[in-house]
Amino acid sequence: MESQDLPLAGRSAVITGANQGLGRSIAEHFVRAGASVLITARGEALLSQTAAELRSCIRLPQQQVLARVADVSQERDCHDTALQAFAKLDNPCILVNNAGVYGPFGLVEENDWAEWVQAVQINLFGTVLMCRAFLPHLRRARYGKIINLSGGGATAPLPRISSYAASKAAVVRFTETLAEETRDAGIDVNAVAPGALNTRLMDELLAAGPDKVGPAFYEKMTQVRNSGGTPLAKGAELCVFLASAASDGITGRLLSAVWDDWANLPHNKNQLANSDIYTLRRITPEDRGGWKKCA
């Protein structure tokens, strides 16, 4: 039974890329909120260690923490992960697509093409493949929560990190599109922008250096790192909200963990449903008061 203290009690979630960083924080917040989890990642040793640590956070007798080595860019891995979740967990109604990489840094024409494609395969195709694997089960249950992790590349250009930017923008548009496809199936699909995080990805970016990522962006990210970055808990808390019954009916949105007043969205569901707030959209001159007229 759900409560304010345990909003995910009686629910189970699959969380990809959950052996470290934001994925691990999401998994811990889910377990502390009463959920059972199946965490996946490609690195077996760290994944097993994370699962053991998460078991110490269990609060209810029926909770489970399972782990599975999986590569979200591989269709078979996604299919088998879904089968395990629905065979071993009670009410696996939540899917969190967190697995992601930056991909190559530098000018697009100078990037290694195989690395560029691989980033799209993990960030975009991995998200789509996991959704494809879970959707038949969620449709049969007539209920589900899909949470896709986005990033700064979805809402603003990210020169010299083009595969990441393109794939994350595509994830948001896919989220909005899938929300429409599942609107009558009781499945809510949303994207989360967690903020600038001081994680392994940040380390990779700074290690690439200003020549690869650009001096201005390098300086900006250095300042973020030195300040500690956005706390992982902010994104994790938003994911708990989107996985809970409190967010039922909120779908097709890109929500910022840092800037958006997401906790009060349940009070504005009707207005939200009939608006394009928290979505990608095209801005026209009329939206900005029209073109400036020449004197």
What can you see in these coordinates?
This protein has 295 residues and is of the alpha/beta class. It has one domain: Rossmann fold (3-Layer(aba) Sandwich), CATH 3.40.50.720. Helices cover 44% and strands 13% of the residues. The chain is built from 10 helices and 7 strands. The protein has helices at residues 21-32, 44-55, 75-88, 113-141, 162-181, 200-208, 210-213, 215-227, 232-243, 269-273, and strands at 12-15, 36-41, 65-69, 92-97, 144-149, 187-193, 254-256. It has a 7-stranded parallel sheet, with helices on both faces. α4 (113-141) runs parallel beside α5 (162-181). 45% of the residues are buried. The mean pLDDT is 92.
Features:
alpha/beta; Rossmann fold; 10 helices; 13% strand
Helix-residue proportion: 40-55%
Tally of strands: 7
**CATH superfamily annotation:** NAD(P)-binding Rossmann-like Domain
Structural class: alpha/beta
The number of distinct structural domains comes to 1
Order of helices and strands: EHEHEHEHEHEHHHHEH
- Shape category: globular
| Strand content bin | 5-15%
Low-confidence stretches: none
Q: Class in CATH? A: Alpha Beta
The N- and C-terminal alpha carbons lie at a distance of 66 Å
